[in-house]
Design a protein that fits this description.
With 158 residues, the chain is mainly alpha-helical. The protein has six helices and no strands.
Length: 158
């Protein structure tokens, strides 16, 4: 029961954090509306109704590793920044060792970071990924990362 509750909490928290990150990414491209004093309008001023201009979508598809690197750095990175490859390598390795998808691994790692921070331990996502990856032997059967992360949190905070 406790394991299931932790899994649900981790999943919900990670989803909220990734949604917040997506909103932050999209919010940076929006233009603020400027206020214009109202002026009396005459018939001469109104000639045609203007159609809104179609703008390019403000949403870009960011990779999981890019998002994690940006969270760690606290700002946007160039998409070809070499540190992003470190996250990619670790995500690939954990996908081979666990039953989790790339996005699940990211969600679990972000939630692990938050839970550690709540317990006074400040660690980067990259260091958490490294620790989780190093804790699973190459030859082991595929594990659920939630279990490894839960044990990791207990070990690090005690």
């Amino acid at each position: 029961m406790k394991k299931k509750k932790l899994t649900i909490i981790i999943s919900i928290t990670a989803a909220v954090l990734l949604f917040s990150f997506a909103l932050a990414c999209n919010g940076g491209n929006e233009k603020k509306e400027e206020t214009i004093e109202e002026m009396p309008v005459t018939d001469e001023d109104v000639t045609t109704k203007e159609e809104p201009i179609e703008s390019e979508s403000a949403t870009e598809d960011y990779t999981v590793e890019y998002q994690m690197a940006c969270i760690d750095k606290g700002e946007y990175l160039d998409e070809d920044d070499t540190v992003i490859n470190d996250y990619s390598i670790l995500l690939d390795s954990l996908m081979e060792k666990t039953t989790n998808s790339r996005i699940d691994i990211s969600d679990i790692t972000v939630t692990t970071q938050r839970l550690l921070k709540e317990n006074g331990v400040d660690m980067s996502l990259l260091n958490i990924l490294k620790d989780l990856d190093n804790s699973i032997p190459e030859e082991s059967p595929k594990l659920e990362l939630e279990d490894i992360a839960a044990a990791y949190i207990v070990l690090v905070t005690n």
